[in-house]
Design goal:
Elements (H helix, E strand, L loop, with lengths): L2 H26 L1 H4 L7 H9 L9 E4 L5 H8 L7 E5 L2 H10 L4 E4 L5 H5 L9 E4 L8 H14 L5 E6 L14 E4 L11 E6 L5
Parallel strand pairs: 1-2, 1-4, 2-3, 4-5
Antiparallel strand pairs: 5-7, 6-7
Bound molecules: S-adenosylmethionine.
The site of S-adenosylmethionine (SAM) has 22 residues, from helix 2, helix 4 and strand 2.
C-alpha cells in the first residue's frame, strides 16, 4: 500500500478507536460526557480558529475528551507545550498524555478552575477553549466558571465554548463581557455553534 494511503487508513482507525472510547464514556456517564460522539473536524477547526497562534501564554482546554479540538489547536499552530488540558475522565487523560507528551494534562474538575490551575498557570492565558457540557450545569456554576476563566486570561483574550443549544450557554447580560457566535456548524452530530466571550481589553 502506498505510504499516503497507509497513513490515511491509520488515521481513520484512530478516529474509530476514539469514537468507541467516547461512546463507552457516554454509556457510563452520559451527563458529564455530554455528547455521544467526539466533535467533528469542522467544529474543532472553528473552535481553534478563535485562538491567535501569534499570542503568548498558555492555551487552556477544558474537557478535551479524546482530543479533536486539541488536534485542531496544534494544526492551527499552537505548540503542544503551551497546552494545559483539564479533563475529568482518567482514560481520556492517559490518552492525551500519550499523544501530547509535552502538554500539561490535569485530571480534575474544571468547574474548580481557579484552585485547580493556580500552580500550573503563572502568566496570563492566551485562550480558554471549552468542550464542557455547560448547559447541564446551573447558571451560577457557569457564571463562576467564566469569571474564573476571565481571571486567568490576558485582557481581551477569548473564552471559546461550543454548544448544541440554540441559545448562549453564558447569560448575555453580563456586564463588561462581549459575546459573539459562529454560524451553526451542520457538519457535526448534532449540529453545534461556537460562542466566544471576551472581557475588557487593556488600554
Ligand atoms: C462534550 S465532551 C467534549 C469532548 C471534546 N472536547 C470534543 O469536542 O469532542 C465533554 C468532555 O468534558 C469532560 N468533562 C465533563 N465534566 C468535566 C469537568 N467537570 N471537568 C473536566 N472535564 C469534564 C468529559 O469527560 C468529556 O470529555
Amino acid at each position: 500500500m502506498p505510504s499516503q494511503s497507509f497513513a490515511r487508513v491509520a488515521k481513520k482507525n484512530l478516529r474509530l478507536d476514539d469514537e468507541m472510547r467516547f461512546i463507552r464514556s457516554w454509556i457510563e456517564k452520559p451527563l458529564s460526557t455530554g455528547a455521544v460522539m467526539p466533535s467533528s473536524r469542522a467544529l474543532a477547526r472553528t473552535m481553534a480558529s478563535y485562538v491567535d497562534p501569534q499570542s503568548s501564554g498558555p492555551v487552556i482546554e477544558l474537557g478535551p475528551g479524546t482530543g479533536p479540538v486539541t488536534e485542531a489547536l496544534v494544526a492551527h499552530g499552537i505548540d503542544p507545550a503551551r497546552l494545559v488540558l483539564v479533563e475529568f475522565n482518567p482514560t481520556f487523560c492517559r490518552l492525551l498524555r500519550s499523544r501530547y507528551p509535552t502538554a500539561t494534562v490535569i485530571q480534575g474538575d474544571a468547574y474548580r478552575l481557579r484552585r485547580l490551575l493556580e500552580t500550573y498557570v503563572r502568566e496570563p492565558a492566551a485562550a480558554v477553549v471549552s468542550g464542557l457540557p455547560l448547559v447541564t450545569k446551573p447558571v451560577r456554576t457557569r457564571l463562576r466558571l467564566i469569571s474564573d476563566a476571565l481571571a486567568l486570561l490576558a485582557p481581551g483574550a477569548p473564552f471559546v465554548q461550543f454548544t448544541y443549544a440554540m441559545v448562549t450557554p453564558i447569560p448575555k447580560a453580563l456586564s463588561g463581557i462581549k459575546a459573539e457566535a459562529s454560524e451553526l456548524i451542520w457538519m457535526n452530530v448534532p449540529p453545534a455553534r461556537v460562542w466566544v466571550y471576551r472581557g475588557a481589553k487593556a488600554v
